[in-house]
Amino acid sequence: MTTQADNMLNKVAESLATDLSKMDLSKDEDIAEIEKCLEVKTEKDSTGKDKDSPTAVAITSKDNPELATLHKAGCRVMLASNKSDVGKLHRVMELQAIDHKADHKKFNPIILVYEDINENEFAIKTELEKVFTNLEVEAETKIDFISTSCSMMRKNKNGNLSKGITAVKEQVLKLAATRQEIEDIQQEIHDIQSVTSLRDTLRIIEDKSLYKATETGFKRFDEVLGGGVRDGRLYALGAISSLGKTTFALNIADNVAKAGRDVLIFSLEMSRVEWQIKSLSRQTYQRCVDENIAANVGAVSSMKLLTDRKELTEKQNEVLENAITEYAKASERIYIKEGIGDVGHNQIRDTIANFMQVNTNSRPLVIIDYLQLMSSPDTKSRLLDKQIVDKNVLELKRMTRDFNLPIIVISSFNRENYNNSASFQAFKESGAIEYSADVVIALELAIEGTSPDEINKAKNKNPRDVKLVILKNRFYKAWTTTSFEYYPAFDYFKEDE
Fold first, then answer.
1. Residue of 129, 110, 111 whose CA lies nearest to 39
2. Cβ–Cβ under 8 Å, residues 411 and 440
3. R_g (Cα) of the chain, nearest Å
4. How far apart are alpha carbons 48 and 261 in whole angstroms?
5. Fewest 10 Å CB contacts: which of 52, 146, 218, 458?
6. Which residue from 74, 268, 35 is spatially nearest to 153, judged by alpha carbons?
7. 365 in helix, strand or coil?
8. Tens digits of per-residue pLDDT, 201-213?
9. Separation between Cα atoms, residue 187 and residue 180, nearest integer Å
10. Residue 212 burial by CB count (10 A; 0-12/13-18/19+): exposed, middle or buried?
11. Within a 13 Å sphere around the CA of 234, how many CA atoms are in the beta-carbon half?
């Protein structure tokens, strides 16, 4: 028997509930009222902090005698007494689902609460359940709900409706978590299928913009690579100390930038100024070649640029000014991030992501100088140098796939390999290069013997005769060689025709 106190409580509760029969969907404030009831807001614990469990929304008929108790138990209550109310709820939830891009996590757990279900209430209950099941098809979302009664919730929790609602809410949340876990597994399977399906593979082959080749500016080198450096691939370039591996990468960077593609350089050893001085020196030599000017007359070495700029001849100043003007255009596409010991794969990934977010139409060629100076992925762990390098190589390879761009990582050689022909074992502290890099390139002196005297003699030669050996090329020819003349004073590589 309902007491006067119960009636008073119900009137108070009814005034706090969202009565759908009074809502006009032509008014934004009424739609907002319904959305406010549905939107996820976490409960507060005794200290005022958010709990993980969202509030439950109870949708019930207008004459449910347990209205006040539902409020007291912590539910937000919505009143739906006829099919018109159900239609309003359906429309608002459909709009909200589309607005949230079909993310069912945006909705609170829904409990459809009934007491003694008569014929009219049964029809409304059926219509309400359709709202949630049909929404999955219409708005491409999933909302987990349970139909129950107050008496059933009390019965399951020894007469305590508040505990019963908590139990049902946990049941709904568990259902949602299970469904999400299944969706994650299905998505993973879909990803695997989409990658391996013949249809998608053919689409990638037909789309010339995917995995395209960027020419390095060295014709023969591009030929042995299979067209140039390609998006989605990791290139490892190694050499002994002072043989010009960084300078060779710089030559490629300048050529690529001049051709119109952005270049992002992570310089973990040299400063930005040193990179640019090398480029200017190289540009002065290139102008001398183009204009048939003797190098000792017009070209300016990087050392002279650093120390004796005032001592330049009139011709050198003229060549330098022209070089500056010409290089200025290419330099606008070259971005250099400096760092010593504080740049690891996480920082590189974030920088690439931020760069591509700002420059929305750009997928830069990335150059890292050099691998052994990249920081540990976990500063708290005591990883060996080899473990650090191997982990960084694996992550760099992952980045080439995730961002679909080429990465050239420069590597030093082990000292015991200084007097030997280049091999995979020569790459310092890394076995991962052999397996993870798509292309492995060794730069070495073009000499027959390997004695210290022969090596020193070859190093002192001007220009130096060097060769690039392709040790690995995942999609093209390996063990091919390209010959170069290297002019160290002017940071200039010339391909041997």
1. 110
2. no
3. 35
4. 53
5. 52
6. 74
7. strand
8. 666 666 655 567 8
9. 10
10. middle
11. 25
Helices 314-331 and 245-258, packing angle to 10 deg: 70
3-state secondary structure of 199: helix
Residue with tokens 């009831």: 37
Contacts of 463 (CB under 8 A, 6+ apart): 485, 486, 487, 488, 494
Provide the phi-psi class of 368: left if phi over 0, else alpha when psi is between -120 and 50, else beta: beta
DSSP category for residue 55: P
CA distances from 140 to 24, 34, 102, 324 (A): 25, 20, 6, 57
Tokens of 116: 């003694």
Q: Look up tokens 């568990």; give the residue.
A: 174
Of all residues in the chain, what percent carry a pLDDT higher than 90?
28
* Cα of 45 vs its chain's centroid, Å: 36
Strand, coil or helix: 46? coil
Tokens 């209950």 belong to which residue? 125
Structure tokens at 194: 């989409």
- Domains in the chain: ranges and CATH: 4-186 (3.40.50), 213-495 (3.40.50.300)
Q: pLDDT tens, 223-260?
A: 999 899 999 999 999 988 888 899 999 999 999 999 99
Find all residues with CB under 8 Å of 124, minimum gap 6, and list them.
Answer: 61, 80, 81, 82, 83, 85, 86
**Three-state helix/strand/coil letters over 150-199:** HHHHHHHCCCCHHHHHHHHHHHHHHHHHHHHHHHHHHHHHHHHHHHHCHH
> Do the strands 365-369 and 407-412 form a parallel or antiparallel pair, or are they unpaired?
parallel
